[in-house]
Design brief:
This protein has 111 residues and is an alpha/beta fold. The chain is built from four helices and five strands. The model has no long low-confidence stretch (mean pLDDT 97).
């Protein structure tokens, strides 16, 4: 999985390209979220438009990002999750926990 981060004002946008599954991809994602929080970047938008497969470990990493950012007074939201992730969120009832956006400008403005 490729991971990149850019800032849009006070929002850090973490773009994921590939699969967020157990192993190096999930570990890299967790490290990036921890790094952002360590430097005070607590408003996080996960760009999922190029995200492929997400397993239970990857889903857990997304939930962890949400809870850790909330603990620091921020938020984690999702941008353009694919059909697979939407179904996974619905099955686990996490679609009511995450704010999900299809428009980048609206997503960034929601923080």
């Amino acid at each position: 999985m490729e991971l990149s981060t850019r800032d849009d004002g006070r929002v850090s946008i973490v773009s994921l390209d590939g699969d967020l599954t157990i192993g190096p991809a999930e570990a890299a994602f967790k490290r990036e979220i921890a790094r952002l929080l360590e430097v005070g970047r607590t408003e996080i938008l996960i760009d999922c438009q190029s995200l492929g497969m997400v397993d239970s470990t990857g889903l857990g990493a997304l939930v962890r990002a949400l809870t850790l950012s909330q603990k620091e007074g921020g938020q984690t939201k999702l941008f353009r999750p694919g059909e697979h992730l939407i179904k996974l969120l619905q099955m686990t009832q996490l679609d009511s926990v995450f704010e999900i956006f299809d428009d980048l400008e609206i997503a960034v403005g929601s923080f």
